[in-house]
């Protein structure tokens, strides 16, 4: 079956085409095609996963765990190192340029299997959920077509055996998120968000594109990921080139996975329908960046010298993102924006984990986060659908929903606890894995960052849950529980959010991720396997509980804390801090200023562009600034210099012609005079010179 | 002997040139052109006799034929000009001015 | 099939001419007869093209096939020498297909002052020039066909064009003529120094008996001729004017095929006959190419007219093609040829859509448009598809012209400065973001939102049957080449390796 893994992305592609062309004629407007396709992909993914586990088990039982070395294609196989659990790679030739052959196909290994499972499962649940959530939407069929393509692109990316196919999937994922974020394109706001998302990630893609090129040449002209990783770990061609390659790829990750400073598109992307947000944040799009980091880990390991400890760009970016994302989540009134900033922060954990050598931690966190974040988003969607009349404003339209929507409430609670990292839910285990590796691998600073992040996460989720489900109902709708297609995915996800962590519950000695997901061999570095640290786990658990406690005290209306309540109105410092956060560190705010100033004068615009492209780099800064620059160039260089030069040549030719026209009097006798004059002069010269 | 004929031809030619350049009447201009052509004819015949070479006379006959045709066309043009502007005056014709 | 081997290329060039002559004899009033003759002619020509495709030996794409080599003007040793190889084949087919589609599209889209007889005759004459240029193996023959192209386009813009058509048509004509004059000088210099007009023998000699400085001078002449046609920055100013004023089919033909003549000239003539000079000039070509990429993109951002924006985007996209060529590597040149075909299809389509938008709304001002997806959803989708293809989305044709060109700049041919080209690579990569910026910005203003009040009540026709007929082959081509690039790389690679593999 693993040889037929190409079917997994192929089925949704076919379904995309079918829905696009025949969807409207189907009894359920195409949604049944989408669901059937994703369901079959999901079943295939499960089969592939089981077969991969069997493959690993067989090899291990045959040769013993200690000597198993997995490398790709056996291309650098060294018999003394033992046998390899090679990834199952199936390719066909795609095209050939020069002497280079580029293949397309599937590469199935632990990481790919895990991703296939997550992506198809969450996509399937989102499909089912949408039948109710998007019911009666103007572009229901189109929505399902886009969902299919979205899933197909992500699956293509996941199984990619080479960087070129990865790039293909990567960009298609970007396209689909553009289509889905801008799903309600009648509103300018939504299309702006879609454009912002596409252009920002595209800015990051410069990095990815150049990174692919650099690694292509660094590995001796190949796109093959296994080979690139092997050569990177050998340090083939020197350390510098791998550092350049890793840095460029990191820029790609920053753009796609919403890392600082290219994170600003993610909250805006909430303009899309909620199921899409769930899909984007849990299983596709943003995790593509983390997946790239995990997939090409050899390059990062070598390029950033991760083994040596200290500080490296990848860990730093991740660490900063954890904190800024979590801090922003506090001041949002829109429940989806809280979750969006939470995603940014959690992605920060994953990127940081990759940066500090916690590969298993990063991938494990990706796995668990997918379930509880999808759960939270779908829960928020459930509230909007049945509780708050399509509003996401927690302060105005929610509150007290606990009584009206019990299932949504309890599943949302599970998701929040899992996200906060309450023992023994999923988030606890994966977060602990990352923190333990940071502590034991020479990255103590990042362990502290992670703990602070855990504190913030627990606190803002407490606020979020409190505002939406407790207190008095503040909305104007008639809240009731959502229908079954919405409830069932919530329950499924809640179950996974509880249990997923046990896959690698190191405290109980279960290390399935280590066993089945982590590659072993020359294409993968010797990453540290942390020991379960009871003290650290207890510390992080205590921090979470304290954070929930503080959050609870603060948000629950208690008399003794009233003193704190109006703090932002009375204390200048608190007010400044609050508005600093409210304005998203003034990053977006600065754009608005820039736009106004830009309208006033192009020079201001150009200056704005120069100033801001480094900090935020968001393309609506770069784009608007360069629009001004473009207008300048167009008007003053193109039209005034280059074009004028051309015109003046023509003008001069015309002027010369104008002089000559005096000769052309039109009078016969004047012509005759000229003729005779010329003859006379010629005759004279003949006489003189001969 | 030859010299007198050549002088005659030169005088005739100059009168022709004067006529072409100075007269305003189209018919007279054409006649002046005839004068010039005939001056050339005289030259041709003179040299033909002097050099005992018949091709000069052949050319003279040729020129006479051409001149006849030319006068025919020329007069037709002058006639058309006269019909259009009711005057044979060449100075009034400058439509071809650039 | 032996006669076909001998006659295929001659037929491919001159069948349209026959069709044109027939059209000239049909009275102007019989419009349907004229249209039918034009369509049939172009279809028969395309059939010849398909015959060539079928009979082409794909294992030897580097070898000139269907060769014709007869005496022509003995006095100057110019010969009637034709041939097709892996480089010219895709361009030839592109030219034939686009001509057919333009005639189909014209069926009910004749711009003012109507006169189908004139327009169709000119399109056919244009095809003679285009096909001939791609097939000529003799410099003089090449030059003749290269110039034939000017005339119909001049009249197309000058007669059927927009309000500023006279200025645009004369500018187009003079600018390109200026370039070809210098190019002709280069050809003559090659003839006097190398003793032949035959491209294969010139390529074989590779300029070895010409002094290096002289080579550089000759190359400069050729460069100007071709660069104006491409057009490269800073010789591009004729292009936006010509595109803005030209009728829709004129714009499509201009973008899809005419611009390719210049780049084709580089690949076929300038680089192989003067390889040493090419090495000297390559960094400058690369520099102008990347300046063009960024500059074109910036100018796009400043446009208010949809068609002019697309025209400037051509400057930017042809920059990628020229960057690929400037690397002098097999990789880059393959990318350049792919880029030419892809740009032909994609930008051609964009101009078609822009034409239909103008047909429907009577304006191309971005500020007045909006809500195309609401009023004409199918056209909006097609437009979005083309925008995505144009910004180089992988999986569609545009990507394969762009990415390999950028990639090849990382490691240019030996002898070229690596650092310079790597800087070009980074700049070009930034250009891809700008491209996404201006294209999406245009799409947002044209297609998203709701129609402006002035068009709220207007009846906007969605894609008509004729338009489907004219557009679907291009749309299919964009997808097929995007998913299976081997369809073009497989043809070009052998020929490119033969010329640039060493």
- Helices and strands of chain B, in N-to-C order? HHH
**Intertermini distance of chain B:** 49 Å
Strand content of chain B: under 5%
Low-confidence stretches of chain B: none
Based on helices, strands and strand pairing, what is the structural class of chain B? Answer: mainly alpha
General shape of chain C = globular
Biggest interface, which chains?
Answer: A-C, 50 and 58 residues
Order of helices and strands of chain C: HHEEHHHHHHHHHHHHHHHHHHH
Q: Give, in spatial order, the strands making up the sheet with the most strands of chain C.
A: 1-2
Secondary-structure-based class of chain C equals: mainly alpha
Distance between the termini of chain C: 35 Å
- Total beta-strand segments of chain B: 0
Q: State the assembly state of the protein chains.
A: heterotrimer
Discrete helix count of chain B = 3
What profile does the largest beta sheet of chain B have?
none
Radius of gyration of chain B: 16 Å
Low-confidence stretches of chain C: none
Binned, the helix content of chain B reads: over 70%
Task: Give a description of the structure.
The complex is a heterotrimer of chains A (690), B (98) and C (502). Chain A has 30 helices and 2 strands. In chain A, helix 5 packs antiparallel against helix 6 (188-218), helix 10 runs antiparallel to helix 15 (359-386) and helix 15 runs antiparallel to helix 21. A two-stranded antiparallel sheet of chain A has the order 1-2. Chain A has 2 domains: 2-543, no CATH class; 588-648, no CATH class. With 690 residues, chain A is mainly alpha-helical. By secondary structure, chain B is mostly helical. Chain B starts with a helix and ends in a 13-residue tail after the last helix. Helices cover 80% and strands 0% of the residues of chain B. In chain B, helix 1 runs antiparallel to helix 2 and helix 2 runs antiparallel to helix 3. The two termini of chain C are 35 Å apart. The model of chain C has no long low-confidence stretch (mean pLDDT 87). In chain C, strand 1 (65-73) and strand 2 form a beta hairpin. Chain C has helices at residues 2-25, 31-55, 88-106, 116-135, 139-148, 150-160, 165-194, 199-205, 212-229, 238-245, 248-273, 275-301, 306-326, 330-361, 372-375, 377-390, 397-408, 418-446, 453-456, 465-483, 486-500, and strands at residues 65-73, 78-84. Chain C has a two-stranded antiparallel sheet. Chain C is globular, with a radius of gyration of 22 Å. By secondary structure, chain C is mainly α. Chains A and C meet through strand 1, helix 5, helix 6 and helix 29 of A and helix 7, helix 12, helix 14, helix 17 and helix 18 of C.
